[in-house]
Amino acid sequence: MAEFVPFIVNTCESLAGKRKQRTRGYSPKERNPFTPFEIHDPFGLRNAIVPVFRQFTDGRMYGMGTAFHIDGFGNFLTAYHVIDFVEQPPASRPLLFLSMHARVYGTFCIPPDCFVPAQAVYASMMEVDDPMAALRVKSIRRPAIDVALLEAEELGGGVRPPQTLPIRISGWTPKLDEIVLAVGFPELNLSEVDPARQAGLLTEGMFGAYGRVIAIHPNGRSRSNSTPVFEVECDWPPGMSGGPVFNQYGEVIGIVSRSLRAEPDTPGVGYAVHFHLARDIELLTSTLDHQNPGWRVCWAVLEDSASSPVSLHPSRTSAEVAKATLNCPGIIKLISHRIGTTDCIEFVHMPTDMGLL
Fold first, then answer.
1. Domains contained in the chain, number
2. Domain identity same for 133 and 43
3. DSSP-derived secondary structure letter, 112
4. What would the pLDDT profile of 87-127 be if each residue is shown by its tens digit?
5. Could you tell me the pTM of the whole model?
6. For residue 175, what is the DSSP state?
7. Sign of torsion, CA 17 20 22 23?
8. How big is the CA angle at 75 (ends 340 and 212), to the nearest 5 degrees?
9. Listed residue (245, 202, 292, 205) closest to 79, CA to CA
10. First vs last C-alpha separation in the chain
11. Which range of residues forms the domain containing residue 338?
């Protein structure tokens, strides 16, 4: 494999100057460029990329995979198979493990606020052609793509608000031999997580792993798994599922969907959801400006047509509630807003399906 320059990945807030921007790349291990390596970035990526847990009603928690924050409104993307337990008994819920306000050393207690439940889960579903189900007058549905959107509950005071990753929905097509970088939490490994391991995952446990694109599957890998994916020679451990996959420009261009670990004499292989080809992703990311990574589509409350936004909201309803609290008439506009800044432009073309808006 030809030498490549380690990727520099920053959150939208860092790129906008609100946080310290990273200037050095994430370097892999010497002579083992595809081997997973630990990432120490507690004030950057760790605030945007988070572990996902399954919590049962008796309080037990199991690590499931990875998710990442996309829009500044508490919405996270992950792989659908990471949270497909929401449709299965017994009753349980997804938890997002967010960061604390301060960095600490030694033994410490994690604030309960860091475990944020998902108050809603969204996925694009499709009917499955099943003759046996038709005979029973039943329909079978499955996700159209291996992607789900998690809407987090309102954050408490003990948790750090998540930072945001720049998402490239369109305008990028992977080329064969192109290098990509996946980030996630492989140490979750589906086992029950006790309090001691929770502390470790809060400060450590985030890994990156480079890989090389070796194939494109526009129609998925099989009839039963039709999610458009690009295939990567890599060594992505299981807990990476749902994690973001970056291109060399630091943009998220896919999600880790499936992987097979490398063996001593055999390279591993991974499959990442191909955002540019997975058209249903647009329905799940209606708060994003799909043409401009790092920008979001939202409703702004303004004092007048020439003023800067007083507040920004993911829905017109929430904007109207905010407007009602102003002492002046105010107006509401649909805008495209650069996350982390006051930059915005009026969003002229209303999407045909605004999804969550």
1. 2
2. yes
3. G
4. 888 999 999 999 876 555 555 567 788 899 999 999 998 87
5. 0.90
6. -
7. positive
8. 85
9. 245
10. 45
11. 295-346
